[in-house]
Amino acid sequence: MSDTADFWNTRFAVSEFIYGEAPNDFLREQSPRLAPASRVLSLGEGEGRNALFLARQGHALTAVDASHEGLAKLLARASAAGVDITAVLADLARFEPGEAQFDAVVSVFCHLPSALRRTVMARAVAALKPGGLLIMEGYTPRQLAFGTGGPKDADMLLEADIVRGELAGLELLHFVEREREVIEGSYHTGMASVLQVVARKP
């Protein structure tokens, strides 16, 4: 088992949903952009709040995470809600989503070392069908001054100019760095600096 999996299994192995049970605010705001019954890939899905929200809207979800503890919570909630979600236990460093498989890829506070993020983003873009959407929110390096959640390593945070380059070739429908209050469980609570992205594959 990887150090990443160990870290997240320990964090998720509690009864509470540490990032809350409600979906991410930005994802909820942007979800009307999705076509009905979209096939959606969610990266670093954790305990399942975002995948469950989209599955309840009728989308077909594939949720990937390195933590079996997180995915167990996701599947229990999905079963209770009567929705089907495909849960994939995988380290994103080795996960291959395939080519032109998904109508949308979701990345919500899925922070990775920059070298790995470049690889994962390239795979995510390749996995989008033509016209497919990438919906992403993550903390910027300015978040370090807030201290209200997220990694303490600036290399894992989203610098707008760098991310714009990583998404070259996609049409940026929404690309905003802003400060907003993030209230998502005990680990994301307070004012925060975030980058919000919606991009479309030609």
TrEMBL record:
A molecular function (GO) term:
methyltransferase activity
Q: Where is the Methyltransferase domain?
A: 40-132
The GO biological-process annotations, alphabetized, read as: methylation
Q: Which residues form a coiled coil?
A: none
One Pfam short name: Methyltransf_25
Per UniProt, which keywords does this protein have? Answer: Methyltransferase, Transferase
Signal sequence, renumbered to the chain: none
This chain belongs to which protein, by name?
A: SAM-dependent methyltransferase
